[in-house]
Every structure is written in structure tokens, then in C-alpha cells.
Amino acid sequence: MNIFLCSLGASWAVVPEILGWIGPNLLDLYAHHPQRLQLVRLREQHELKPPDELWICTTEGEQTQQSLRQLRRWWQILGEPLPLRIWTAAHTNQLASQDECAHIRELTLRTTMLASERSKHGGQLILSLAGGRKTMSADMQTAGNIFGAQALLHVVGPEHMPEALQSRNAEVCDKQPKLFSRPLPAELAKAIMPLIASTGQRSELLDLELDGRTVSSHHFPLPEPAASGDPFSWELPAEKDALFQELQKRQRESSDLMGNFLKQIAEQERHENWRSLYRLVPEHIQRLHKTKLDDSHQHRQWLQKLPKADLHRHIGGCLDLPMQRQVAEAIWAQMTLPERERSKKNIQDWLARLDWPLDWPQKLRNFGPQRTECSVALLKYASDEQLQHNLFTVTEPRVGLQQSARGFAAYEQPGELSGSALLCHPAAISAYATAIVKQARKEGLRYLELRGSPHKYRESPQAQLEFLQKLRDALQKAGAITTSPSEQTSPASDNAAASALRIGFIWILDRRQPEEMKQTVDQAVEAKKRLAGFVLGLDLAGDESANNPDKLAPAFSSAFAECLPITIHAGEGESAENIWQAAYHLHADRIGHGLTLAEHPALLARFRDRGICLELCPTSNREVVGYKDPHITDSAQYHAYPLHQFLEHGLPIALCTDNPGISRTTLIDEYLAAARMREQGLTQWEALALMRQSFVHAFLPSAEREALLKSADQQAFRVLSRSM
């Protein structure tokens, strides 16, 4: 609601003089004003809106009563265009005593407080300083500075006003209600100039609890007059119930109040939030604590604007179908005519039917070197319906797929035409990189750790290094930052830094290839040396039951020697023993998934104490392992997602996407999925703390990570302070 609140004395005309400026749709009083355009620009500059209600706060003397009668006549001539509510301070007249002044001051504070509450969400409160005695104007200004206001307005004019605008002559006064009900003639209009005296910022002390209460109309009530303009006479309460006394007390104890509030916030937290957020006003902090994320457009937009980092995104499963088709087109353009004809011939039977053979992924692999050509042909010539059906529909419902007849292969199937099937071709790199950067920017990411297996895309060590170098260069050409700031040729501006996208790469090792493990680790170490800033660390993935971490540890010796950051896929489908081995034998800095960690309380406590981060991917965890998600009917039989247990124990957690193309998700969707899958929901404050955790545990040198954290912190504060 937009409310115009005005103090009033003997001259009632200040009301139409201001209303005729801020509400030209109700009364275009200055239509003929010589400086009309200037007045319009000033109104637009301060974004003043026409009021929905007109409130008056005044005394009860005879002069005031006469003024109110004139005001009501004017309002009736206008056709009663908006509700008119009038409060009068009982037993007040000329404000000639301390008691009278205290009475009108208390009424002014309470009407302003009530108006600020009514205009709180999306509305405006506009105050007038022009009406009544100087003490009333001072009280109104004080109230505006405490409770906040879009603008505090005044009206000025020449020392000798035109007779038609003066209030001394009874005959003139009698004509004024009609005069002020339509645009003033130019010679009269030019004698009046509305202006903005100041704006008001709501005091943060109002929303802090003191003696078990906050400052609100609940604790300091004010009856509401009828909207018909009939005055309501308000009696001054006992001094102990006075709002003025409460405000003075809060001012005296302001330091202790704020300190206690921040202490309470800290005591409730399991993870530190963005540091700048503690500078927000308490009301906003409390709102973030109470507001639970939901799948509304408003909350999606809120998440979109905030700085986010994804620490667990497989390059092979990151692109959606339209992006995969774009990469396929880039490869197709480089294929020879014989290669094109051969690939079309190999898949012609599949293109003729909706249902492809159940083992079509294996048949593609059986084509050997021609697998890429055939995958490209399918992406180019298969219809959207065919691709949707054979990649996704036949694997639905996508819940607990590792327990299905096809096991993990059913989860991977939507990515069969992407990843190594495309990345084996040199022409894929540029298109792939462009799609990755576009996707990340669309999600509002500031930092992204891609992970993949170059040894599966290229055979020789030299070719693997060249692949990574070309990928790095292509990502940089697409607009990402792929080197540390010290290696960049020119410093980024503040604006550029705020929207910069930093991308690094993590080399994935496969548990199912133990005989090649040491060679691949050594190759990854070499890549880290040659492509410092881009190659950031190692990952171990693949079937957890294939080879336990303790058996693979000797192969990691060169990585340990070079102090490479390490993340391990563990505890996704196997017991917490695998997580223990990943932590103690492979010295993991982070764990991918780690869903069974709650089975091992001592290890869970150790992870918390050592700051080992879990990379949780709610959607893929539901698809692979199976967890309850209220949006998925077929998930009702499964256990609750362990996010709540991890949060309660203070474990470092980063929400990630895993394979957004396979799971048809985004990082924003993962935050919303986490909110749904945690029975207690996820508040905005908790979501913000999780966002920060992702930056804190990035595999970056400490100086670069700290700079990124500070930049993201500033971005979060800008977004949230503007949304108040």
C-alpha cells in the first residue's frame, strides 16, 4: 500500500498542494505550472507513486477542526477518490504545554509506524513536513528517520502569497476547497513549489528484541479510523507504554542490542555465512532465516542473481540435447563425405524406428573408431522424439537406478551421445567449450570445476596434454578465465571481476583401470605443472566395488609428492568404509557424494574437524541411489536425503550438479531439490551459507580463492541489500 501521511494545523491546503504533485492521476493540480516538467522529472527521479490512502495526524483545537472541515469538503468535491483516515490527539490544542507536545509526538510516531508496516512490502510511505506547527513538523521528521520513508516533502512559496491562496479571509477560505479540486491557474500554481526535504532510512534497532518485544503496532497499537474521514480522538497511554520511551531506550542500548543479535545468529549457525551479510539490517537477516526456498519464479530469480560455484560437474554429462546437437554440427562440418555416408548407413535402421535396440549404447561402442561418427549422425538426424525416448523415457522413473536391472548404465544412458563419444574428435573442443561457458553464465556461476578423463579422449600422453591446452584456450576464447590472476595479461575491472567466470579442470581416474593408474596419475601431475591454473587436481571415480582406495594408494605417490588437491567419488553406493579409505589412504580433500558417511559417526566428526567437504548432488543422488523427493511420486518408498544430518553436524557441504545434461538440471535446480528433499526445508540463509562453502573449498591457491571469495561476497551483499 502507498500511504501519504500529513500533519495538519490551521492550513489544510498543504494536503492538496502535495497530493496534487505526487498523485496527478487523482488531482493534477500543477497542470499549468510554469515548471511542470521540472516537477514531473523530480517526481520520477525519486520514483514517487500516487497514494492509495491519505492519513492525517493532528490536534483537536478549534482552528484544527475548521481546517479538517475544509479538508473534508475538498475531499468530497473530488469525489472521495481514496480512503481518508484522520487521527487527532485528544485534549490538545495550541501545543502550549509539555504534555500536549508529548501527546502529539506519540501519535505521530505511532501513525508513522503503522503506515510503515502497511507500506512495507512493495509500497511507499510519503510524509509531509508542511502541515501544523514546527514541533509537529519536527516530530514527523524524527518519525521518518526512525521508521523510514520514500520521501519527506515540503511546500514553499513567496513571502506574499496570492490572496486566493491565503487563509485569513473567511470568504476566500470558503472558496478554496473548490479551487484546490482542479488544476490551478498558472498565476496561482507558480506561487507553490513542492520539494523533497529528505528521505528516511528505517532504523535497524526496531527489529531487535528488547525485553521480549520488537517495535511494532502489535506491541504499540493504534486503532484505525474509518476511511470516511471521520476523526478518531486518541488518548495518550501510560508512560511505560509509550513508543517514544521505547525508542529512547533502544537508542541508549543500541550497541548491546546489535551485539546480542549477532551473537544469537552466530550461535544458531553451523557454517559461517558471507561476511558482508552480517551488515544487513536485522529485519532482513531475520527474513532470510525464516524464508524457506521453494520452486517459485521469485526464488529462482533470487538464486539466479547470487554468486554460485559448482565443484562437481562432469564434462561428459554436462550438455543438454540442443547443445549436444550444436557440437555434433561442428564435428559433422569437419567430417569427410565418405565418413558422413558411412555413419548414416550404420544408423539408418535406428532412424526408421522410435525404439532403438536395448543395447544400442554397446552397439555404438562396437563401432570402435566409428563410434564418434555414428553418435554425431544420430544427434544430427534423429528426431527430438527419438532422442528423448531412447535417452530418457526408457530409463524412467529415474529413481534408484543402480538397483534396476541395468544398474548404473541406466543412469548414464542420457549421456551416451556426449562425453567421450564427441570429445574424441578435435572439432568438438571449441563448440563444447562455447556451450559450457554459455551454460555456466546462464546459471549465474562465478566458479566451475569441470572434471573429465583426457586419457579416454586421446591415446598418447602428448595428445592428452594438447587436448587440455586446446580446451583451456577454447574456454578462454569463449569468455572464461582459465588461469590464475597472476598469469593474466591485464587486471580485470571491478565490474568485470563481478561477472567473471573462473573455470578449472580436474582429471578423473577410473577405479576399473588399476593397471593404468600410476601412468595416468603421473600424466595428470605433468599436466598440472604445464597447465598451472587450469588443471587443478585429481578425482577417482568408477564402480566403488571395483578397487578399494587402499589398493590404489601406491599409484598416487607422484600426486602426493606434488601436493595435488584430491577429490574421491566414495560412499555413493557403498558403505562408509570406502569413504574412510578415501580419506586416510588417498588423503582426500573433498569427497564426491559421501552419502553413507552418517553410518560412521567417528568419521563424520573427523570430516567436520578436518574440513573435508562433501560434494552433494541431490538430483543425481536421487536418480542413482534413490531418495525421497516430494516432486517425484516414485520416490516415496525411499529414505530421506541425509542433507539434514550433515548440516546439523556442521559438515562442509557444496551443492553440485554432477551431470546436468544427464539429470536435466542446473545448479539452481539443485538448491531447490535440496530444499525439497530435506524434510525441514532449506532457508535462504542456509542456502547462502552453502553457496559460500562451495567457494571456500575450491581447488585454488589460497590467495586466488580469497580474492574470489571477497568478490563473490560483495556480489551477494549488493543483490541482497537491493532486494530489501
Highlighted features:
7-stranded mixed sheet; alpha/beta; elongated; single chain; 8-stranded parallel sheet; 15 strands; 724 residues
Class based on secondary structure composition and strand pairing: alpha/beta
Rg estimate, integer Å: 34 Å
Q: Which range does the strand content fall in?
A: 5-15%
Q: What is the overall shape?
A: elongated
Q: Reading side by side through the largest sheet, how are the strands ordered?
A: 8-9-10-11-12-13-14-15
**Count of separate DSSP helical elements:** 33
Alpha-carbon distance between the two ends: 16 Å
Mean pLDDT reading: 92
Proportion in helices: 40-55%
Task: Find the count of extended strands (DSSP E, 2+ residues).
Answer: 15
| Biggest β-sheet strands, sense, barrel | 8 strands, parallel
Q: Would you give an account of this structure?
A:
With 724 residues, this protein is α/β, with parallel strands linked by helices. It has 33 helices and 15 strands. It has an 8-stranded parallel beta sheet. The protein has a 7-stranded mixed beta sheet with strand order 6-5-4-1-2-3-7. Helix 23 (517-530) links the parallel strand 10 (502-510) and strand 11. Helix 3 runs parallel beside helix 6, helix 4 (98-118) runs parallel beside helix 5 (134-147) and helix 12 runs antiparallel to helix 19 (428-443). It is elongated, with a radius of gyration of 34 Å. The model has no long low-confidence stretch (mean pLDDT 92).
